[in-house]
Write a structure and sequence with these properties.
By secondary structure, chain A is of the alpha+beta class. Chain A is built from 14 helices and 8 strands. Chain B is built from 5 helices and 9 strands. Chain B has a 5-stranded mixed sheet, covered by helices on one side. A two-stranded parallel sheet of chain B has the order 6-7. In chain B, strands 8-9 form a two-stranded antiparallel ribbon. The chains are: A alpha+beta, B alpha/beta. At the A-B interface, strand 6, strand 7, strand 8 and helix 12 of A face strand 3 and helix 3 of B.
Chain lengths: 379, 188
């Protein structure tokens, strides 16, 4: 759909400003939309409203002192930036993480993945006009927030991971609470599917809208659920096998085009639903397997002074896909350069290329289905 | 493919002077990397992507790093192959006074925004880039903040960039008991 031919020479191009405070832009984003009636000729994204120069701040903080700032890279899924920063530092300084801490990381991250996807799914449904799923999704997210609050004391910006491990072990009785939550969550997901995913109106609204092919997805550097929805089976948890993921049994769902074309907006929605179920499967196993490892062994041995020389690039699978952290040290207490590569940033880049020919209302569906989160774009 | 093989293949196809300085995964370098002649980065990129053996279809990350000591700016490319499951890091070392190199956005479209960000924050010019504007900062911003010698301007359009320390402000308005005692002693 990249070429749009306008038969009428007399058409009038209209410039429409969407944002920065548009309710469907997931944060503060702005689009300058050039349209002919309802059909978009070009949508130019304008980002930077949430730029907090996290990379520059990194050059002024000590290695452990930077951890709270990484929460703000993506505040909907803060656990992943925590883990990414921690693993980049561990790679740079050759720090081994105890098994129990790795399980705690997996548990906290998978919980966070579900809660992040809940926001994504609920908000996407709301963006295209279905109000009910949003509070349903938030209800599940609220329970996860309660669990994480009990684990680390915070509900949004967790600051839970540490270089070499995590900050707290599981509280007494927490595993049972988490399992009880999962027992409620699995049927709730089925209910959610009945409510919205397989809803006829919803399918008609989203099937075949804004199709992204596998080649396009790779070329534009889409990652995570967006890439998998286009039919590319690629998940760092499976293919890179970092942390303790190789010990856990789970599937990587990929887009199949069940109601339309592979890589359409509905596929991206459906895929996130399936990922939540897989996360629940991972959590059930991890909550059992964690007991094999001694309690309170949650922080590895760190050198007395963290003054590494060298560079490392660590990658993890965050809720929005491959998140990378590149850190360069030059023998000082502060890193010389920190770089975060995030999923939303590249997802945002494709919108300008995909938008010509879409309806204005479908642009909203495209943005929502790519699950872009403004702080992660701007950092 | 190992880093050594990738390095050899690039040299065999494009000549020895294009790729130099191979660093295997050792010591401080946690990922294997080699250096690319900056003005030929586009050729290297398209070879990496189209060659059946190399098949690097995923550009992960473009990073710019400022090294004022060496009078250089490094542009670092992390690339990966979904098909072959191997990765490599490429580095281009540019003159700090005049950092410019060809764009790779024609090879990997995802480079478009990453290069814009690199231009915005470090002032690296990417020749042939379709739309090289500032991305994160306002269009009329002065300077490139990730350069090591960047100094923040005092204000931007009348908005001060430095705020008074809130703790000091608080102490001024509500003097603590200890502070008041110390003040009294000084006066006496």
């Amino acid at each position: 759909m990249s070429e749009v031919v306008f038969a009428n020479e007399m058409d009038e191009e209209m410039t429409l400003n969407m944002g920065p405070h548009h309710p469907s832009t997931h944060g503060v984003l702005r689009f300058i939309v050039k349209s002919d009636g309802e059909i978009i000729r070009k949508a130019i994204p304008d980002v930077g409203y949430l730029h907090r120069s996290i990379e520059k701040i990194g050059e002024r903080c000590t290695y452990p002192g930077y951890m709270p700032y990484t929460d703000r890279v993506d505040y909907v899924a803060a656990m992943f930036a925590n883990e990414c920063w921690a693993s980049a530092c561990e790679k740079l300084m050759d720090i081994a993480v105890p098994k129990r801490a790795q399980y705690l990381r997996v548990i906290s991250c998978e919980l966070n993945r579900i809660s992040s996807h809940m926001i994504a799914l609920g908000a996407m449904a709301m963006d295209v006009g279905a109000i009910t799923p949003f509070p349903w999704a938030l209800r599940e997210r609220e329970r996860i927030n309660d669990l994480i609050e009990e684990l680390c004391g915070a509900r949004l910006t967790f600051n839970y991971h540490r270089i070499g491990g995590v900050s707290f072990d599981l509280p007494k009785g927490w595993s049972d609470k988490a399992l009880r939550f999962l027992d409620m969550f699995d049927p709730a997901m089925e209910e959610f599917d009945r409510l919205i995913t397989n809803n006829d109106i919803y399918i008609k609204r989203l099937a075949n809208v804004a199709v992204i092919s596998a080649t396009e997805a790779k070329d534009w550097g889409l990652v995570g659920p967006n890439l998998r929805a286009s039919g590319v089976s690629w998940d760092l948890r499976k293919d890179d096998g970092y942390s303790v993921y190789p010990e856990l049994d789970f599937d990587v769902p990929i887009g199949k085009g069940l109601v339309g074309t592979v890589g359409d907006s509905w596929d991206r929605f459906w895929l996130r639903c399936r990922e939540c179920c897989e996360s629940s499967k991972i959590l059930r196993q991890a909550l059992v397997k964690i007991d094999e490892h001694p309690e309170d062994d949650i922080l590895g041995k760190l050198p007395k002074k963290l003054k590494p020389v060298g560079e490392a690039y660590a990658r993890i699978e965050s809720a929005r896909g491959d998140m990378g952290c590149y850190v360069v040290g030059r023998g000082a207490e502060e890193p010389y350069r920190v770089r975060f590569r995030t999923g939303s940033f590249t997802a945002m880049g494709i919108i300008e290329a995909k938008s010509p020919g879409l309806f204005v209302a479908d642009l909203v569906a495209l943005i929502a289905s790519l699950d872009v989160v403004a702080p992660e774009i701007d950092r | 493919m190992k880093a050594q093989e990738i390095f050899e293949r690039v040299r065999a196809k494009l000549g020895d002077e294009v790729a130099t300085n191979l660093h295997e995964q050792a010591g401080g370098d946690r990922d294997a990397w080699f250096q690319i002649e900056p003005y030929r980065i586009e050729e290297v990129a398209s070879l990496l992507k189209t060659d059946a053996e190399l098949h690097f279809d995923y550009l992960e990350c473009i990073t710019g790093i400022d090294f004022p000591d060496d009078k250089q700016i490094h542009v670092v490319y992390h690339v990966y192959s979904y098909a072959k499951k191997h990765r490599i890091v490429l580095k281009c070392m540019l003159d700090r006074e005049d950092p410019a190199l060809p764009t790779v956005s024609s090879v990997w479209p995802t480079a478009n925004w990453q290069e814009r960000e690199c231009f915005d924050l470090l002032g690296v010019l990417f020749d042939g880039h379709p739309d090289l504007r500032r991305l994160l900062l306002p269009d009329d911003w002065e300077g490139h903040p990730l350069r090591k010698d960047y100094t923040e301007a005092d204000e931007y359009h009348g908005i001060p960039t430095v705020r008074p320390n809130p703790i000091e402000l608080f102490a001024l308005r509500v003097p603590s008991k200890a502070g008041a005692d110390a003040g009294a002693k000084k006066e006496s």
